[in-house]
Structures are given as C-alpha cells and as structure tokens.
Design brief:
The chain has 13 helices and 39 strands. It is of the alpha+beta class. The protein is globular, with a radius of gyration of 25 Å.
Length: 691
C-alpha cells in the first residue's frame, strides 16, 4: 500500500538567535481550540492525511484482526461485567454503582438505609443513547446533600469542555440552566441552594469559580473567585468537618488557598497563606483545628497544625523524612489516617487520637503491593473503614476493617471470570544504577514459565513526569502479554515521586534528560541480566510518557524491537513556545519556558523528539492519537510521523492511528477502552512474531 505523504511547506523558525526548519508546522491551525470542539473546522488537507494514515495503519494491522478479537475477548473475559461497588452511607441513603454485561457505562443506585427498595438514579448507557453521540465522557456525578438533586457534567466531544446539568431525581427533570465550558467538577452547597464550579477561559484553563443558584434559568451566575495568573488553575472543595469551602489555585509547583465559611450568604474568599514559588500546601479542617500538608521547608512534605487561620501558629504534626513522600490526612472522630511513599511502595499509618499512638497498617505479606483505604460512610463517628490491596499478580481484595478491634472481613474480591492463579506469576522488585549512580526501582512481572535467558520479549513501560508515580497494582489486561511469554517491566524513573519530591525535581526542567537516561539504563539492565535481549524490548508510554518514548528512540533505537506511544507529547519545543495552548503556561515549572529563557530553549531543543529525528534505522513504531485531544494536540504525532517517514532508513512499520471521535483518554466506554488496548497488544505480538 502507498505510504501516506504529508505535503511539505517549509517554514523557518527562529528563537534566541537559533534558526531551524519546520516542514510541517502548517498543519497547526490558529483556531485549533475551535477544531477540538467542532471537527468540521479541520483543514480538509490535514483530514485527508489523517484518513490516509488510518487506512495505512488498518492495512498493516489487517493480519492482526483475529488476534485483536481474541485479545478483546480475553481482556473482557477477565472483567466481571455485572459488578457492583461497595456501598457508601450518606445520611439517609446508601449509594453504589454497578456495571452490566451489556452496558458500557456505569449505573448509579441508591436505597434508603435499612430498606430494600433500590432506585436507579443514573444510567450512562441510557443517557448516551438519549444524546445520540459517539463519544460520552462523564466528568462528575454528584448527589446533593438533601438527596433531591443529581448534578452531572458531560463532554460529548472528547475535548474536555464539560457542560453541567442539575436534575431533580424524583421527577427526572432538568431544573437549572445548562452550565457550559466548565472543567467538570460539581460542588453542592450544604443547604442545596447552589452549586460551585470552575469555568474554562478561551485557552481552556480553569481560572474562575462561580456559584450557580439551583433552579435559576436566566440570571448570570455569581463570580466567587478569579485567578489572575495564566499559569494557575482553580478548584473548589469542602473541608472534612464541612465547615469551610476551600478554593485551591495552583500550577504544578506552587499553590495558594482561600477559604470561606459554609454559611456565608455572599461568600468572600480569604487568603490563607500567600503563594511562594516552589511551595505547595493544602489546608483541611477537623475538630476545631487546621492541618496543612506542605513542602515548605520539607522537600518531601510534612503536616503542620494550627488552632486558627485568622491568627496562624503552625506547629509540626507529622515530620518530614528524606526521600519519603508524606501524604495528607483523612479524619474520623477517633482516628487519623495517612500514607507514606518510598521506593515506589505505599504504606498506610493509623493514629489513635485518644492515645496518640500511631502504627503502620500491614494488610498483606506480599512485599510488592498497593494498599488502599477509604471511608464507608459520611458520618465520621465510626471505627470501620474499607481496607484493600492489590499487587501485580494478585487481584484487588477489600476488607471491612475495624480500626479498634483490628478485625477484618473480606467484603469484595476482584473476580477474574475466565480464571486466574496468582501462583503462575513472579513479581520482582530490583534497583538498578542509572548513568549517575542513582538507584532506580524497577518492577518486573513475568509468567513462571518464562525463561530468563535473553530469549523473551519484554515490554518496558515508563512515564516520568509531573510527579506522577507508577504504582505496582494489578492489571488483568497485561496478562494477555505476560501469558504469551512477554515480560512486563515498569521503570519508576525520575520525574515521578516514587522516591519523594527530590525524585521529581531530578527529572524535570534542566534535569529532564535524567528521565530518558533512567529509562534507557533500565533497558540495558534488563538486557545485561538476561530478562531480554537487544532488539527484543518494546517501549511503551503515553502523553508525557510519549515524550519519553520519542526521546529514547532517537537516542538508542538499537535497544528496541518496537515503540508504542499513545497521544505522545513529541513536538514539545513547538508547544512550549506557544503560550496560547491550554497547558503550556502552567507547565513552565515542569519543562521550562523556552520562549523567554535561552537556557531552557537550548535544553528542550536538545531532546525534543520532533527536532531530534535523525537519518538512521528506527524500530517498529505505533503511534495513536485523538482529534479532540486538547492536552496533546493531534498535530504533534502527525508532524512527528511525517518527519520520521522522511528520515528513517529502515523498512520497519511506522503506523499512525487517529481516533476521530475521542480525546486525550482515547475512546469512551468500556468496550472502546478494551479495543484500544487490543490494538496496542496485537501490534506488540505482531512485531514479536507471536501471532
């Protein structure tokens, strides 16, 4: 089949006395945010190219149709389709969700406490059918405090512009005007007269908090708070003791918080602590005291306590620890629950308020696992919590746990309908040395029959940005590769927070290349120790993990058999220079500001995947993107693919697949998500010659 061709229109770009050529910059439309909302505004020539690439990918994946279907059935077969969540007790009702064998979206149910009369208050499949839309994204689903109203927000394009609706549950009628172009979050006032929400500006940034009067169909909503900095975005929530609303405004690196009392008729947010560059903080209130989870003078966070916000006198409550990430606190009447993360492993601690004694809560004898804890009810006068865990080989288990008696009862276990034996799998956690001697955690999961002699293929997953940590939790989907003799390894590289804030700082700004080097050194370690061999590893990452994939494949293509990159941030220099795009300004502290800082410009230019494509052999590459993605615009992977076609000197596969009705998270619905995984895995099996 003819290889797709994107017309070249040479443009010379210049910044900081550096000039470079960009043959494909023309595909970026000036009205790109309008295109995200309305695909009919897409340049016809660009659409034709994307369609050609889709046909080309379809052609070259034609021989994987059977394995895609098999993978889809396999993955779906491991999901208990008719499942129900554990109930959460509100004041009057118990609420929970369920899924069905035929539905793609969840159903929200409730029943009055101590009764058996179940009521369906939301059905995603029915709502989608009513709207007759292909994409159906639910941002938030909230019930008012008096249990009368259902608030929900919908995105039917995939572009993350959410419209909020308020529905009377009993009559099933919309009772307020539609609130459009929001970030999706809904917060009901305690008296149920209002909802608070954040509005998106013309650059898709949430910088205003509004209050909407429920039932009002015509009046303008009241502006409560406005953030002046283009780099910061805002959100609103309620304190644990339900006495205050807190407005949080932040970028990735700095935060500031305001508060007002829940009974204020005309809310006037008051500043708590003035923003200070590099300082993150989050205030909560409980039992007449205020708790501050912050990294002020504590790189890996601490928790301070004060009796007042009017006259603040902060004292240490939970001390900081080097390279141990201290989490925030969850409160019950008699208990304080918190978490710590170190070496890519989480721990849960419980403090008895009356005795002051704190202890770690150990739930499993598996060393590599992810513990979790959640509340069973809104009323905090209880000793019961839901306590659970999973590991790369063990599906999720949740217990009803009594903090006082330490008794536990298994109340939910993730069922794998097609069968699963944890003993068939081996999980290892090792630490390897990176280029500068730093020890990087690596989690390896394999089938017990897979030989460690260099013959196995291996999928190496990585992310390494924004302080996002990769947890070693259970994934039933990965078993489709692991059962076919492909080892799954997750590299906990710098740029995440698996080893605290320092781990993040060592992988961002002008330390970003540590992220890429950590990943390539993971590949080399796995080769040296016979988990795989050079040219048998498949790299995988999405979004900022796609930036990682683009960078490492330019630097060390010989290590890889193939690369799978989803919605990849590969034209990172161009995006960083464009301050009108939704995420750019808010990410200066993550990637730098190339436009205004020559050091940042030179550094980003030196690794940006699109700018560093070379004349050389590349491995097989599958790139997936979405037309309505506002986080990583589709033109980034499109340009990257076109330029790669110009430069690569091999005959390996280069496939670009664009979802024309989806956003950053891909297709909506359960089946849509499984279909996308099946394509990725089928590609991995094809290039591994395992079809």
């Amino acid at each position: 089949m003819k290889i797709p061709y994107l017309k070249k229109k040479i443009e010379l770009k210049s910044c900081h006395d550096v000039t470079w050529e960009d043959n494909y910059s023309w595909i970026h439309q000036q009205n790109i945010l309008e295109v995200l909302k309305d695909k009919s505004k897409l340049d016809p020539e660009v659409k034709e190219y994307l369609d050609e690439e889709n046909s080309y990918a379809e052609h070259h994946l034609k021989d994987t149709k059977n394995i895609q279907k098999k993978l889809f059935d396999e993955i779906k077969g491991r999901i208990k389709l008719d499942d129900e969540s554990l109930p959460y007790k509100d004041h009057t009702y118990e609420y929970w969700t369920k899924t069905t064998t035929i539905g793609n979206y969840s159903i929200k149910l409730r029943k009055k406490i101590n009764t058996d009369d179940i009521e369906e208050i939301w059905n995603g499949d029915k709502e989608k059918k009513k709207l007759n839309t292909e994409y159906f994204g639910v941002g938030d689903l909230e019930v008012s405090n008096n249990d009368r109203y259902l608030g929900y927000s919908l995105d039917i394009k995939g572009s993350e512009y959410y419209t909020i609706f308020i529905r009377d549950i009993e009559s099933n009628k919309i009772i307020s005007k539609e609130i459009s172009e929001t970030s999706g979050g809904i917060t009901f006032s305690l008296d149920d007269k209002y909802v608070f929400y954040s509005k998106l500006d013309e650059n898709h940034r949430a910088r205003k908090i509004y209050r909407h009067e429920i039932g009002n169909l015509k009046d303008e909503d009241r502006l409560i708070f406005e953030e002046k900095s283009e780099a910061f975005t805002v959100s609103i929530g309620i304190s644990s003791d339900e006495k205050f609303y807190f407005i949080n405004t932040s970028d990735h690196n700095t935060s500031e918080q305001y508060y007002f009392k829940v009974d204020e008729k005309n809310p006037t947010p008051k500043l708590i602590i003035k923003r200070e560059k590099g300082v993150l903080y989050s205030i909560n209130s409980w039992d007449g005291k205020f708790y501050n989870h912050t990294n002020k003078d504590a790189e890996d966070f601490k928790v301070d306590i004060s009796d007042s916000l009017d006259v603040q006198n902060w004292k240490n409550f939970i001390k900081s620890k080097d390279e141990v990430l201290i989490g925030g606190c969850t409160f019950l009447n008699n208990w304080i629950i918190r978490s710590e993360t170190s070496n890519a492993l989480d721990k849960i601690f419980i403090k008895n308020i009356s005795t002051g004694k704190e202890e770690e809560l150990i739930i499993s004898d598996e060393k590599i696992c992810v513990p979790g804890i959640s509340l069973t009810q809104r009323d905090r006068d209880t000793d019961n919590v839901y306590l659970g865990y999973s590991s790369p080989r063990t599906p999720s288990r949740v217990y009803l746990y009594n903090l006082l008696t330490k008794s536990k009862k298994l109340v939910k276990e993730q069922e794998i309908p097609s069968g699963h034996n944890s003993n068939d799998y081996i999980v290892e956690r090792i630490e390897y040395k990176s280029h500068d001697g730093r020890l990087v955690p690596l989690t390896i999961t394999r089938h017990k029959k897979t030989k460690i002699d260099g013959t196995a293929n291996l999928l190496l997953y990585g992310y390494g940005s924004y302080g996002s940590s990769m947890s070693p939790n259970f994934s039933s989907t990965r078993l489709s590769l692991i059962d076919r003799d492909i080892i799954w390894a997750t590299a906990h590289i710098r740029g995440g927070m698996e080893k605290g804030m320092k781990w993040w700082k060592e992988g961002k700004l002008t330390n970003k290349k540590n992220t890429f080097k950590d990943y390539n050194f993971a590949a080399k370690y796995l080769i040296d120790h016979k988990y795989s061999s050079k040219g048998k590893i498949i790299g995988m990452g999405g979004s900022a993990g796609g930036l990682l994939m683009g960078a490492v494949v330019n630097q060390a293509p010989e290590l890889f058999l193939g690369i799978i990159m989803a919605v990849p941030f590969v034209d990172s220099l161009t995006t960083n220079l464009d301050h009108s795009l939704p995420l750019t300004v808010g990410e200066f502290d993550e990637f730098g500001n190339a436009k205004d800082n020559k050091e940042h410009f030179d550094y980003i230019f030196s690794y940006a995947p699109y700018n560093n494509i070379k004349k050389m052999d590349y491995p097989h590459i599958l790139i997936t993107t979405s037309l309505s993605d506002n986080r990583v615009l589709f033109d980034e992977p499109a340009k990257f693919t076109a330029k790669l076609r110009d430069h690569k000197t091999d005959n390996n596969l280069l496939l670009l697949k664009t979802e024309m009705n989806a956003g950053h998270g891909g297709k909506s619905g359960r089946d849509g998500a499984i279909e996308e995984i099946a394509i990725d895995y089928a590609f991995a099996l094809k290039i591994s010659k395992k079809i």
